[in-house]
Structure formats: C-alpha cells, structure tokens
Amino acid sequence: MRILISNDDGYQAPGIEALHDALKDIADVEVVAPEHNNSAKSNALTLHSPLYVQRAANGFRYVNGTPADCVHIALTGLLSYRPDLVVSGINNGANMGDDTIYSGTVGAAMEGYLFGIPAIAFSQVDKGWGEIEAAARKARDMVEQMQRHRLIGQAPWLLNVNIPNMPYEALKPLRLCRLGRRHAAQRVIEQQSPRGDVMYWIGGAGAAKDDAEGTDFHATAHGHVAVTPLKIDLTDHDALGYWAQTVARIAGGGGAGQ
C-alpha cells in the first residue's frame, strides 16, 4: 500500500510527523506538505506564481503553496506512481461542522478524492497537540482496518475524522456522524498598525450551534472518534423542485428592462 500524506499546518508540524511515523510501518509513505502554516486555505490552488518543491533533512518534501497545491503537484507530476490512499493531518484543532468548508486539511484530502483516490482528513478536536501519539495510533488503526476490508484501492471516497485529545485507551469507538453547525464567527479584531493604519484580524470560529446527537460535535464531546463521509456536490437537491418553478416564473416574467 502506498500513501501520500499532506496537511495544512506545515511539514514541520507535530501532527504530520506523528501521522508519518504511525503509518510508515504499514505502508510506503510519502510526505508532500506546505512549507508554512496554511490553515483555512480550503481547496485553493496557486495559479499566478511558481511553486517550488524542496526536500527536508527527514525526507519530507515541502511546497511554497497551499495544501491542495501539494496534493495536486504530487499527483500530476511529482510522484512517479499513483498512491492508493491520500491522508491529511493530523490537524491542530477540530474540523467539524462548518469548519470543513474552510479547512486546508479537508482541502488536501479532497484534492486526492477529486483525482479518484480514497482520502481521509484527520484532525484533533483541541489545539495544542495533546495526546497526538494516541491520535496517530487511532489513525493507523483506521487505515489498517480499511486495508484489511479492501476499502482502499476501490472506488474513491472521502472521510473527515475528528479525534478527541485523549489517551488511546480512553478513546471510545468510531461513530459515524453527520456534520453539525457552528454559530457565526466572532467579530473581527480591529487594531492600529505601527504606521497608524487600521488593520483587522479574522475572529475565532463560533461555538457549536447544532451539536445534537448524531453530529460530529456530539460524538467527540462524548469521547468518540467522529467519522463523517463527505461529498463534492454542493447542489441543494431538496430545493431543485422549488427553484425549477421559481426560475421558470422569473425567466418567463420579463421586466421593465426587457
């Protein structure tokens, strides 16, 4: 089994080092990750400046680009083979609910999925890397079980996995979940630069809004590893019928400017 590993915290982050070390004994692993922290870059690709790939002393390769750049480059020319699995993480903090829209960790995994490769995004619920070795061990368990059940190398799928910062023995079993929702983000932080200009910092993520049973928020709050299957199609299929009628009325209604 051959695995491509990336992340959004950068190639020197403890999370990707722990994930690499956990998987290297069960697979041939290759790390291609951002040079610097690229959190909240989602699926962004760099289109208007060149990208460079360097190799670190530990063998990891790093790119002056986004998480999606790293996976894209790896799959379209850097690697001489097609990986069986793409894994991203382990992220420094949760990627639950609305986080998945912005997450570079999810974006890296999604890039692999877009190329037809099964992919998993791993995150720890709390920041700070507490119990990172336990999280890496749990990630390895998942990959091993998926390989054993022949889920790797088949049709592509995309999983988002959030692991509580707990000792390995204290982690409860995997729980399949839907995404919850967060409240709106906190207000921007306004400051004055040394030159007297007004500058802004994006506020923190909102607290959980929908953390009902069955959500990723609920599962991790109760010590479970939350597993959520994701898809690319953003179409609101339930609303297609309503909008079919509405758009037909709009299209046929004309207007003063027509």
UniProtKB/TrEMBL annotation:
Instruction: Give the enzyme's main class according to its UniProt record, as a single word.
Output: hydrolase
Which protein is depicted? 5'-nucleotidase SurE
Kindly state what the record says about how the cofactor is bound: Binds 1 divalent metal cation per subunit.
- Pfam families xref list: SurE
State the family it belongs to. Answer: Belongs to the SurE nucleotidase family.
Q: Return the EC number.
A: 3.1.3.5
> Where does this protein hold a divalent metal cation?
D8, D9, S39, N91
Which GO cellular component terms, listed alphabetically, does the Swiss-Prot or TrEMBL entry include?
A: cytoplasm
Report which reactions are catalysed by this protein: a ribonucleoside 5'-phosphate + H2O = a ribonucleoside + phosphate
Q: Which InterPro entries match?
A: SurE, SurE-like_Pase/nucleotidase, SurE-like_sf
Lineage of the native species?
A: Bacteria, Pseudomonadati, Pseudomonadota, Betaproteobacteria, Burkholderiales
Cofactor needs: a divalent metal cation; Mg(2+)
Q: Offer an example of a GO molecular function term for this protein.
A: exopolyphosphatase activity
Q: Which domain of life is it from?
A: Bacteria
In terms of Gene3D superfamilies, this protein maps to: Survival protein SurE-like phosphatase/nucleotidase (3.40.1210.10)
Where located?
Answer: Cytoplasm
Q: What does this protein do?
A: Nucleotidase that shows phosphatase activity on nucleoside 5'-monophosphates.
Q: Which residues cross the membrane?
A: none
| Annotated Survival protein SurE-like phosphatase/nucleotidase domain residues | 3-184
Gene name linked to the record: surE
Record's keyword terms, sorted: Cytoplasm, Hydrolase, Metal-binding, Nucleotide-binding
